[in-house]
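Risk register update: the risk of archive-format incompatibility is retired. Evidence:
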Amino acid sequence: MAVGDVEIRTLDHDDHTAIDAAARILNAAFADRRPAPWSTYAAARAEVLDVLAPDAICRAAFDQDGRMLGWIAGAPDYGGNVWELHPLAVHPDAQRRGVGRALVADFERQVAARGGVTILLGADDEEGMTTLGNVDLYPNVCEHIAHVRNLRNHPFEFYQKCGFAIVGVVPDANGVGKPDILMAKRVLPVQSDHS
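Archived output:
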């Protein structure tokens, strides 16, 4: 499947078939994580319904046969200047085929069209997938961030490839040694004073 074969459109809160598909994708995409954040269909469906708020963005990618491949959502913060990307889920069968990148690029365009400046996301490391997990990050938190390495396919490198930068970390966000890696990307061009 080429990325050009993907149609991305808004997930409608009245489309129960699409909501069901999104919940199943969310459940499947994170099934191998421990603890699995959406370990049941009911928990995944509740998350989908939660992100379908009126001021949020929720977009889904579909193949040529109308099958949902993945979806992305986010909500405004800081007066709409910053949008939190949460979550991004791609069905395991469609991963590593450009679907996630296409969804992130579409989300960036949607945020910019709404006047958003920056996208922020948190990439938890609850399983020691990076050199930031399973260690005491204090007192030299910034030094740990500067030397971060991916040990077991943590998604922070995917987001780096999409242009995001690590802007911080919340040590112990999910318990001792289980940080949340904060990443951000500016989506509006900076106006130069030298025009």
